[in-house]
Bifunctional NAD(P)H-hydrate repair enzyme
Amino acid sequence: MKILNVGQIRDLDAFTIENEPVSSVNLMERAAQAFCWWFCNQFVNTRPVTVFCGQGNNGGDGLAIARILSQKCYDVRVYIIEHTANTSADFSENLKRLSDHLTPFQIRKETDLPDLSEKTICIDALLGSGLSRPAEGIMAKVIGLLNTSRNKVVSVDIASGLFIDKSNQETDPIIQPLFTITFQLPKLAFFMPQNAVFVGEWRIVDIGLDTVHLLQQHTPYYYTDSAHAESIIRPRNKFSHKGTFGHALIIAGSYGKIGAAILAGKACLRSGVGLLTLHIPECGYEIAQISLPEAMVSVDVDRKFNTALGSVSSYSSIGIGPGLGQEDATAQMLAKLLTEARLPLVIDADALNIISQHNDLLDKIPAKSILTPHPKEFQRLAGETANDFDRLETGRKFAQKYNIIICLKGAHTAVILPNGDVHFNSTGNAGMATGGTGDVLTGIITSLLAQGYPPEHAAILGVYEHGLAGDRAASRKGQSAMIASDVIENLKID
Ligand SMILES: NC(=O)C1=CN([C@@H]2O[C@H](COP(=O)(O)OP(=O)(O)OC[C@H]3O[C@@H](n4cnc5c(N)ncnc54)[C@H](OP(=O)(O)O)[C@@H]3O)[C@@H](O)[C@H]2O)[C@@H](O)CC1
Ligand SMILES: Nc1ncnc2c1ncn2[C@@H]1O[C@H](COP(=O)(O)OP(=O)(O)O)[C@@H](O)[C@H]1O
Ligand SMILES: [K+]
């Protein structure tokens, strides 16, 4: 699914209006109906509703929503914030249409602000995608009122005050909704951790914007929905054998962290690889043979750390990093691997930390290798960034410069491709914020690479399936009880 910028969204609206054709007020009616369909499924009509409207099209949506909800027997109040002399045409039309049902209250100054009963659900239709500057004056006061009230707030399209495709300042007044019900497409702002409280839970409602025009839009930003992930999966051929699915090598673990190697290895096997070899320090030999009998074990000459590899030319994919430690000898082994490897690697955890400390290694990373940093590891690698939008841009430039794929891990892991395209993940949950889940991801992606998935697909699909397994684990165990092993147990890539 594509993620468009503000200008493209405006064009898509305009194209739909002209070519469907549908009048812009009827498109607004569709948007309001779609919002109300979600709203009525979520909240019963015994809850009072107060709609706060600006004077642009977002406010117009709010007026139409108020009318529809009032027709559905909700007890609705409407407040219009008079912040400008210019109202949009569709706002004015909806104001007329509302007059048979309700009389709105005007808010011009602070003393006009209402007291809200606790049960009231507030609908935020102050400002939408037309936001051109931070909210101020009476608009900021209303935002402040809603944020300090204990009421549930639902934002129409986007929280008022939040920019769709660029960073806000920390001091900007922005609604902090419980839900954002957005039209047709997710917005870039939703994927930034800095915006978590300004988005809440978000849902997309379809308003029938032109799909052909949408297909023609160029954007570097995508959202990995189930349809996209499933289109990547290759079915297993009836006559396939273990050689068909590759031989993966995972180089991981150190004294006290052999578990990281086991987690990555088990995840690799559970993701469909034909054969797996684990390269681990000697202290992990028995642990690995007992806990993962399906894997072959290559034992390092060192007892506690991975320090030396034999030839790696026979492997179909190589993953390195989980629990590796950062010993000098390990760093030298990594440098040699980067120079000798003829295929894209999966590079995680301490392997990334070693590269951060030896910047000359960056140029040696094989093309299309997949790096899986969490935000701190990415900061060590690429330096400080001003905000999450800036971090994403830095990631895009980094991926392009070194011709690599970066999976910037988080709630919506961003898979950044060598051409600068970004695929935000849609699966996963906060139960995955527990030790070892990153090791599991390394195993999954290494497995997919071994099976012959192109690196871009291995990264996008691996991240998606990792999150999906996490979601299954959460629904079975609960987010607090689930651990990384549960993510592995719930893998099912087919
Ligand atoms: N047919 C369609 O296109 C559809 C559109 N839809 C809906 O329209 C929404 C976009 O509507 P929109 O473009 O009218 O912008 P909106 O956000 O309502 O307000 C802009 C007004 O506010 C002003 N303003 C800006 N910043 C401000 C600030 N900080 N403080 C105060 N004022 C500020 C700005 O004025 P200006 O920048 O010129 O000063 C302008 O007057 C979109 O999110 C969706 O909900 C749906 O119905 C589907 C069909
Ligand atoms: N709140 C969250 N929502 C969704 N996924 C999450 C969340 N927190 C962590 N994850 C996922 O869990 C994994 C954690 O990886 P990482 O930080 O490397 O952990 P570890 O080093 O303990 O293995 C990443 O894939 C990340 O995307
Ligand atoms: K809004």
